[in-house]
Write a structure and sequence with these properties.
Shape: globular
CATH class: Alpha Beta
Number of helices: 13
CATH architecture: Alpha-Beta Barrel
CATH topology: TIM Barrel
Order of helices and strands: EEEHEHEEEHEHEHEHEHHHHEHHH
Amino acid sequence: MTGLRTRRLAESGLDITTLGLGTWAVGGSGWAYSWGPQDDRHSLGAMRRALELGVNWIDTAPIYGLGHAERLVRRLLKDLPVTERPFVFTKCGLVADPVNRLAEPRRDLRPESIRRECEASLERLGVERIDLYQFHQPDDTGTPVEYSWEAMIRLRDEGKIRAAGVCNFDVGSLAICGNLGRIDAVQAPFSLIHREAALAEIPWCATRGTAVLCFSPMQSGLLSGAFSAGRMKRLAPDDWRRSSPEFQPPRLGRNLALAHALRPVARRHGVKVGTVAVAWVTSWPGVTAAIVGARSPRQVDDWIEAATLELSGDDMAELAAAVRHTQAGEGPACPQDVETWQWEVGVQE
């Protein structure tokens, strides 16, 4: 499967496939928010399989394994001709404790920290320029967001990064940054379970030509069709999902019921349940692409068809009905619900 559909990443000049490969889980064990042990051979195999099937970008971050995921991406790039290399997106702003690897990372968007992290990522990745550089989380050091975004703009002006974006920012912070300089992309959590971004961040970006990259479209495996209460009990001791509210009762039951309700649509199209979950995200108006994780080549095979799956109006209506019936998650169940939800919860720009 090659020649996947692409969409433009704002004014960056980058045309990216509607699915990108996420590397959170390949960071391995021994850090806060780990997914548990991971075999590097499987990680590299997943990356190679994604590229083989037409995916043209990889999203990573220095916090994933405290640099390990970025170093794995470097190993991938080293073995590829320059013309066959994917776009590489990475982040800054989550700084690990230098003594305790398992400690909660510090949210640091001071200008000097941003530049220091950028230089370190360039070295770990072995590239001269980062294709998309993003703030990972809002700052908690007291640094005004204006100072942080001005530092990001300088990196773009200097050519160290090609495009600049943010993750997990609310509309208020987006507006401040947007007034200072172009935001090329916004990363937001968005899935059939976490639908809140449809009320604010996605519409904000749509009216300004900013790309929207949605992470966790399968809600960290809950909507893959392969997760179960039994699987939950077998997660590695340091897997962050063990303490996530979405993986605990009563949410877990509702979330698994929603995954089960996706099966008729999946059967109708001859695809996996997770494929339907991912395609729902990329079908949403204003969404540019989805970031999908994989820990093995087989997992890539399980969701790649979402890049070509066309969900019909009847499919979307059936999925919306499943959301309402199971009462899983929060947010509008379909694009037609957005305006009603905005008024009900008081979300106004």
